[in-house]
Amino acid sequence: MGPKELTGRPSNEDGHATDVLAEVLDSMRLSTLVYGRFDLHAPWGIQFPDGEAAHIVVVSRGGALLEFEGSGAPLTLSAGDLALLPHGGSYCLRDAEGSPIHVMEGGACQRALALGAPLRLGGQGARSTLVTGAFQFGAAPRTLLFEKLPRVIHVAADSSMAAPSLASAVQLLIAESTSTRPGTTVVMSRLADILLVQAIRTHIAAGGCQNHGLCALADPQIGKALALIHERPAESWTVESLAAAVALSRSGFAARFSSLVGDPPLEYLARWRMTKAAQLLRESNLSLSEVAAHAGYHSEASFNRAFKRWEGVAPGAYRRGRRTRPSRVTPEPPVLELDPSAATGS
């Protein structure tokens, strides 16, 4: 299945504040690739390959232990739970500690999904069913706000912080994963998009973030300042003007912004300007002077110098090397059953 891009955000023409989370995800050009459904019988274990893509796991039935680098004790997932690994990396799912592990190759899940059949493995014990997927990053570097997300976001089925629509989306994804009707892959990809956003929303709403980043959106003044920066990055913002816009003193605003976001206000502004400039260079036909103006630079020469300091390459060279090109997916023969001989010990 070809990836589906997270696009189609409405323009901000109705006076509402800029949606910073939507801007962050849009700038990263995430593409959704749902792997499909796993039908598992104990004992079972799956090792997913290392990679930069964000991963999502939904437990339809039974349960699983999620293990990843730096996790210490495994994370227990129950039916209806969702786990988001925003930074990717290798991870393992299994029914119990010590169960044998099957190392999953990158193309096996996609080939199974193409036939609308679950991937089966394990023994003769208790049954668990999972739906997994990935979000590929089409642009780098990722934004500071996203980078500060934790290694895993776990949303339990009975979480009081989760919106009712999240549980509904989980159930719809589970139901769609068993369907063979036309358009199933598109529906699953769109539902996975919803779960990605809802998981991050739940993380923000839960509060108590140990790391700065997107949780800054929960703070009314700093969230408003971020929205202003994202809405009007070309404006000649100063610490004073941003502080005044959110009714804080200069010193109080600067300290609070740095504490919650992880960067001083003007450094974050410079980062976001370069992020948007890089996106325009990749995806638009604007001239370099027009891109410079959108990024708040009155001089193309000064923009060129700033961009080269940021990306390590001049804007023109960046555009030539990073132009968005249509992806081509080469079909491979289907593989539905995993060979038990591929299992490894814990």
Plain-language structure description:
It is a single chain. With 346 residues, the protein is α+β, with helices and mostly antiparallel strands. It folds into 2 domains: 4-206, Jelly Rolls (Sandwich); 214-322, Arc Repressor Mutant, subunit A (Orthogonal Bundle). It has 12 helices and 13 strands. The protein has helices spanning 20-28, 108-114, 144-147, 164-176, 184-206, 220-231, 239-245, 250-261, 265-283, 288-294, 300-311, 315-322; strands at residues 4-5, 30-41, 45-48, 54-61, 63-68, 75-78, 82-85, 91-94, 101-103, 119-122, 127-137, 153-155, 343-344. The strands form 2 sheets. Strands 1, 2, 4, 7, 10, 11 and 12 form a 7-stranded mixed beta sheet that branches. β5 (63-68) and β6 form a beta hairpin. α9 (265-283) runs antiparallel to α10. The longest helix has 23 residues, at 184-206. It is elongated. The protein starts with a strand and ends with a strand.
Give descriptors for this structure:
Jelly Rolls, Arc Repressor Mutant, subunit A, 7-stranded mixed β-sheet, 13 strands, elongated, disordered N terminus
Topology of this protein?
Layout: E1 4-5, H1 20-28, E2 30-41, E3 45-48, E4 54-61, E5 63-68, E6 75-78, E7 82-85, E8 91-94, E9 101-103, H2 108-114, E10 119-122, E11 127-137, H3 144-147, E12 153-155, H4 164-176, H5 184-206, H6 220-231, H7 239-245, H8 250-261, H9 265-283, H10 288-294, H11 300-311, H12 315-322, E13 343-344
Helix pairs in contact: 4-5, 7-8, 9-10
Pfam families: Cupin_6, HTH_18
Protein name: Transcriptional regulator, AraC family
Keywords: DNA-binding, Transcription, Transcription regulation
